[in-house]
Amino acid sequence: MKIVNDPNFRQIGEPVPGGIVLVSDHASNFVPEDIPLGVTQDQLNDHIGWDIGVAAIAERMARRHAIPAHLAAVSRLVVDLHREEDHAKLIPQDSDGVLIPGNLGADREWRLERFYRPYHDAMAAWLDAAQPGLIVSLHSFTPQLADNPDEQRPWEVGLLYNEQGEAARHAIRLFQEYGLTVGDNEPYSGKLLNATMNRHAEAHGRPYLAIEVRNDLIRDEGGQARWADMIASVARGVRELV
Hints:
By secondary structure, the protein is of the alpha/beta class. Helix content is 31%, strand content 17%. It has a single domain (3-239), classed as Aminopeptidase (3-Layer(aba) Sandwich).
């Protein structure tokens, strides 16, 4: 299996024209040594540092289901690859109540040039070469936010979309057939938070599924295996319908 390891991204497998591919902007909690963020490793291992479980699911989907992946190789606390370049939280100064001291006064343009643009440029080239029939954009969400403990998050999985919702609606139905509680533009709205798919999918008319899995379900190998199998099955079903 072809694997590409770059300082800003990792690619696993080779796309097939018209097939399914996977991308994940928050698949790593790695912080380069020359960027002291001032947070602990335990904090980086939590949901503020990355999307828990998605890297393992993506690797399993690439190896077991022939769904190649393009994965981020740096933490969302270094630069949030799932934001527009001018977004206020591109370099977060705090996350879920945790202060990120090393991001106060950070050089925005330097981080864009070093991390953000190479990641998205590589994704664009990869997708242009692949011409996929469906893109899976994989994320996970925490069951409860520390800075909003009263918010209820009952969904096991959510589908996000902006203007292009046909694929998401098919996926919602297919996940519901597993007996799951499925969020429709929950726990976040794709009308507001859909930067990577707006850029790489909707702007090119490419069908996509922006999937958010609740991270308490995918913290161990068993949960990751179960969800990799389900997501692959749903993606294949949607691919036949769009």
